[in-house]
Each structure stands twice: as C-alpha cells, then as structure tokens.
Write a structure and sequence with these properties.
The chain has about 650 residues and is mainly beta. The protein contains four helices and 49 strands. The longest helix has 4 residues, at about 135.
Amino acid sequence: MCPLERLNIMIEKQIVNNCIIGRRVSKTITHTSSVTQVYVVEMYTSRNTSTLGLRLACGLVLLVIAAASAKKNWARNCFYYETSINYEYQYKLPRIPNKARRIEFSVTAKNDVHIALSAQNADINQMYEIVIGGWANTRSVVRRCKQCTNLVSVTRKSGFVNPNEFRSFWIEFDGGDIAVGFNGESAFMRYRDPSPLNVNYVGFSTGWLSRGNFRFCDLDCKNHETNLQYRYRYNLPRLPKCATRFEFSVRASNDVHIALSADDEDLDSMYEIVIGGWGDTKSVIRRCKQCANLVSYDRSSGFLDQNEYRRFWIQFVDGEIAVGYIGEVAFMTYQDPNPLDISYVGYSTGWGSSGSFQFCDIDCTYSSTDLQYKYRYNLPRVPNTVGRFEFSVKASNDVHIALSAQRRDLNAMYEIVIGGWSDTKSVIRRCKQCGNLASHDRRSGFLEADEYRHFWIEFVDGLISVGYFGEVAFMMYQDPKPLNVNYVGYSTGWGSNGRFRFCDIGCLHSVTDDQYRYRYNLPRVPDDVTRFEFSVRASNDVHIALSSQNRDLNSMYEIVIGGWGNTRSVIRRCKQCTNRVSYRSSDFLDLHEYRHFWIQFDDGVISVGYVGKAAFMTYTDPSPFEINFVGYSTGWGSNGSFLFCDNIWLGLF
C-alpha cells in the first residue's frame, strides 16, 4: 500500500442530509490505483444498522481525490494528540531544535485552540500564548502570559477552526516577531516583542467546551538555510552503516543539489543529484560535481516551489541511485556498475535560488516488511551498555520485535507483539509464539497503517518495558532469569506489512553525572584510525581524554568543550594542567539538543570541530603521545548524554 497521510474526515449528519449518525464502524480504509485515490476514513452508520461495512443507512459515502491533484506530503514524522474541554496545556512534543523558528500543525476543534510557546516544558509566568478561534470561534489573539492582556487581536466572522475538518496553521517566532497564519497563506496576526522570550517547547490545549485533535509534523527536524552560492554543506550526521535511504523537505525556486559522498567534503568521485535545475524543468544524476548527466528527467510543470516545502526521498542500494517524491515511486534512477561508498550527505542551492531544507531522521535506518512473519536481523549489534531503543512503525497490525542474544531466532529470546489480534492486544513472550507473560488490551488500537506510531522498548536487569514515545510504559514483564539481549529483530505478518524506522539503535549510549571522572568503556581504537565522531547533550564541561591506556595517565591529551559556563574550549597535555590551545564561543553545547563533534589525531596534530565543519581548535604536539583509548566525562554542575555511533565503537570497522 502506498504511504498515505491519514485523513481524519468526520461525516456529520448535516453532510449526509438528515441521516442519523450513530457509531464509527471503520477506523481507516484506504484503496489506491494509478488513476485515483479513494479514501474512506472514520465511517459511521445509523444506530440501527448492524452491518460493519461501508453502507450507511442513507447510502454509501466515498471521498474520491484525483491522484494528480493530491499533495505530496505523505509519510511525515507526525504526532497526534487529543485534548479535552479542560483548559490545560500538554507538553508532549520534542524540544524545538535551536535553529527552528517555525512550527506547523493541523487541528480539528469548534473553538479555542490554544498554543503555548515556552522556554520550559511547562507553564511559566512569561511565555507566549496564542489563541486561535476564541470567543466562539470569532477572534484570535497573542499574549505574553497565560490569560493576560491581548497584545494583538484579529476577528473573523467566518471563523478560524472547524470541528469536522483539519485546519492547518503555521506559527513563526524569530527574534521576538510572532506571526500566525493558515498554511499556504500570509500571516493573519503579528506581534513584535521588544524583549523577546526564549522558545524551546510547544504546549497545546483546547477548552471552553471545545475538544481538539492535533497533528504536529516534523517538529524534531533540523532546519538549514542555503543562499545563492553553489557550495555543499556537510553539517549533517554521518549516515549509519546500514542506511540505504533518507528523506528531506525543501523550499526553493530551482536548483536543489544533493551530494552523496564517502567523506564530509566534496570528492572527485561522488554522486551529485540536481532537482529542479534549468529553471525548475529538469532533474539529473551525476557521478561527480558538474560533470556529465548520467540520467535526466524533464518536467514542464516543475519540481520545486519557493513558498511550499516539497518532500523527497533518495535511495542508494548496491549502486542503484533512485529519487522520488515521498509517497510515490522513483521519477529518476541510475544504476552504477562501479558503486561509490556513501557516508555523508551534502546539500546546496544556487543559480539564483536560495533554499530552506528540513532533514528528519537522516541518521535513521528505514526498512520495509511484508506479510510474511519472519524476523529481520539487519540492524547493528546493541552495545553492552545500552538497555533501550526507540523506533517508529507504520502497520495495520502485528508488529513483532525480537530481542535475541544472537543475530537469529533462538529458542529462548524475548518476543514483543504490538497490535496483535487485529490491533487490539500487545504481549511479551520469552520465545517465539509461546505463552504470553504480559498483555495489554486496547480497543482503540495501537497502530496505524498510514501513520508512524512511535515506541520505546527498554530491557534492564530482566525488566522488559514497552511504551509510546513520551509516555510511561503500557506493558512490563520482569524476568526472574534474564536473557542476554545483543540484537533486535523486527517483523510483521497476519495480513500486515510494515514500514520501520530505527534511529541510533547501533549507538553506544552513555549517561554521565556531574562528577568529573573519565569512563573508559569504549573499545580500543584500531591502529589505523585517527578520527572519530560523537554526539553529546550537556549544559557545559564535556571532557574527552585521549590516552595510551584505558585509564587516566600523567601524560595524555585532555579536550574540554564548553567549559567555563559553556564559553570556552581547550586542549591540554594532561588532566587539569596548562591550556595549550583555547577557543572562545558562546554556544558549544546544549542541555536539550545533541551537538555533533569530530576529533582527529594524526602525527601529533589534535583537531576538534563540529561534524560537517572545519576545526575550531587545533594543537600540534612536538612530542606526540600514543593514543589507543578514549575516555569521556562531564562535571562542574553538568551531566551528559553521549552517543558514540562510529563503526569503530560498534565492532563494524
């Protein structure tokens, strides 16, 4: 089934003339063909109708949308939430990335949609409050605190929101400029704050006898701007070793360029993909920068739009490079007889075009499963210190996860079923298809065929826990005789296929406290390796040790990132001794967002930089030390969350 964005269409009695609508009989039914796309979603029957089919007491209702006119915005990373008539903000969404200045969302409600823009994931005295459709859906306002003075007010007799259809809005917050508008339109409300507040979290609520259904998409995406200069930016994370596909969105008038390179820089041999070149009329694939077009595809109606995000996928499997719109088949494919390695993605615009890019989960692994109940074990080994992973999946029912000691099915392994029994029950087992040790029923279902649902699974000291992302566990089992968990398998079956997304499952994840103490639990650095990358989330004082042994020594390199209140980074030749190099900045680290760094050590030259950028700090040692092990720590009031995803740490080098 082609990925389709969920349509939440409420069929009310005023639409079906005077038919008395009673109960919902089908959560989601979809059918597609090459000519049309037919959606029948949230179908209702009259109270005295017993057939659980598509027939209404007043007749069959179908909504038919021509495929040619359907927008290409399916398969986004979306979060769905319901709100009650109680005016109470929910802060369940991910933290907004630092560079983000805009959110988009859709909502069904009869009145009083409230959005909070807060510095914390809670209500605070000073925060922006935006009301859309208050005063019986006639007025919208912007405030600088909850229920205080309206700083801007806009009225609209025709109303802002609708209880029977999603209305889509955007909100921008840039340097104190707060703007609100309908998607695809200019702002209908603006406020300029002379003393701007920090915005890190989004809260949402309804109230005043109004319930709501909210849809927030791509909140956790990284936004990147490009100018008219044709120059590739390589500031995205390195692709996972098993990655074969990524997705992105872009807003540009023409000439979007994507580089697929073996290194985080331009190379003589690398793939270059141009989308919407030649005045937005042609797309091509090349095997080097600005060289011969190996494949081209013309389209007189254009590929891009400077006012609207267009969403694309790029796939690279065994030398086959394919490009398409999300939710559609490839419009351009090239088979390379001598495939190049691909580890990094670069992006650029040019030729009179600037761009706004969104990369969501580019460091994630995507995989599809069919109707066959068969576990796939193609993910990296789970590091020994990891006891949790997260994943997203689109499936109608029967998502199966295996936690095994080996990269195959075993007689003794954990099997987790989510949405089995026609999406009504989830269970935990200690072997394949054996007795259920824990179960959780849910009549409203766990999964959705056309929408990603986000889950986490934890396994610590024999306690297996399963939950939705951002929520507590809905299912737990304590094993008195815990099994080893080294690999994760995944499958669907029982009439369901699936689309899985795994992020950071092959990373070594480690948490540090505010005690300044190096951890040396990473593998030995191979002899021919002189560089590694890592990600960290901390408020200040990230410390990296480069040592010849897996312990502190009198002579070893110490790198401090974000010391002195996150204002300074240094390189030393021993612990807490003289700073050999120092670099000042105001924003090395972030407590709520992973920052990605690389460290290189080659013939006594120690360099540190952000992934995709040049070094911001370098020291040349005239008498170099041997480097075999890496230690890491935080301190000085800061704890940290480290991710080591390089192949050298995962036994894949």
